[in-house]
Amino acid sequence: MGTVFSFDVRAAGPGPCVAEAVAWLHHVDEVFSTYRPDSPVSRLARGEITLAGCPGEVADVLRLCESVALVSRGYFTLRPGGRLDPSALVKGWAVERASAILREAGASDHCVNGGGDIRLSGSPAPGRSWRVGVAHPLRPGELAAVVSGTDLAVATSGTAERGAHVVDPHTGRPATGLASVTVAGPDLALADAYATSAFAMGAAARDWVEGLHGYEAFAVTPSGATWHTSGFHPRVMA
C-alpha cells in the first residue's frame, strides 16, 4: 500500500500472532493496492472484472466507503480524480483488523502503526497510557501535539508527508483549508476516512466532527493556529 507498518507488542513471545497480522496486511495489499496493476481493486477500476469477481472483503470495504461518503456529505469519495480508489479507508481498516488479530491471540497490549495511522490497544505498561505524537505539518521534525490514550484509534490527514494530495471532491481542486487534521475514536477504519473527509472540508470540519458520535479532532491551520473539538484533549506543543 505504499507505506510502512510497524508493531509494538508488549508481551513475551508474540511472534506467531504478529506473523498472522503481517500475513493479513500482505493479503490486503494484494487485494486493494492501487500500486499493483494485478490487484482486484485495480482490475475492478479498469473494468476487467466485476465486483462479484473480487474477494468478498472488497464489497465490504466499498459499502463502508459509501457510508462515509454519505455521512461526510460527499467530502469523502471512492473515486478521487474519477478513478476507483478506496485507499483513504483501506489502510485504517487493515490496521484495525491486524490489531484485532493480536487481541484475539492474547496480545492485548500493543500499538500497530500503518504509515502514521495508529491503533492502540491496552497499555504500554501497568498504569500508563500510550502517547502518540502528531507531526507538525509546517515545522518538519517538530510535533504539533501529543495524544495519550489506551484503547484508541488515531489517524492524521495533512500535507506533512505527501504535500497537497487530498482533493475537495466538490471543486476538484486540492484542499487548502487545513494543514493537517487528526481524528481519534474507537475504530481506525472510520478515523482514517473521517480524517480525509475533515481535511477536504477545511473550516467546516470542526462542526462536522463535533456531530460524529465517539470521534474527536485536532487540527493545524495553514497559518499555524490550532483548534480541537470539545472532547479532544491533546497536549499542544508550543
Describe the structure using short key phrases.
globular, 238 residues, alpha+beta, 33% helix, seven-stranded antiparallel β-sheet
Structure description:
Helix 1 packs antiparallel against helix 4 and helix 4 packs antiparallel against helix 5. The mean pLDDT is 93. It is globular, with a radius of gyration of 17 Å. The chain is an alpha+beta fold.
Topology:
Layout (H helix, E strand, L loop, with lengths): L4 E5 L5 H18 L7 H6 L10 H16 L15 H18 L5 E5 L2 E5 L8 E6 L7 E7 L2 E7 L8 E2 L4 E2 L5 E6 L2 H14 L3 H6 L5 E5 L5 E3 L6 E2 L2
Antiparallel strand pairs: 1-2, 2-3, 3-6, 4-5, 5-12, 6-9, 7-8, 9-10, 10-11
Helix pairs in contact: 1-4, 4-5
Query: How many beta-strand runs?
Result: 12
Order of strands, main sheet, comes to 1-2-3-6-9-10-11
| Helix share bin | 25-40%
For the record, give the distance between the C-alpha atoms at the N and C termini, rounded to a whole number.
34 Å
Radius of gyration: 17 Å
**Can you count the helices?**
6
> Based on helices, strands and strand pairing, what is the structural class?
alpha+beta
Assign an overall shape: globular
Uncertain spans, ≥5 residues at pLDDT below 50? none
Q: Can you summarize the main beta sheet?
A: 7 strands, antiparallel
Order of helices and strands: EHHHHEEEEEEEEHHEEE
Short description:
It contains 6 helices and 12 strands.
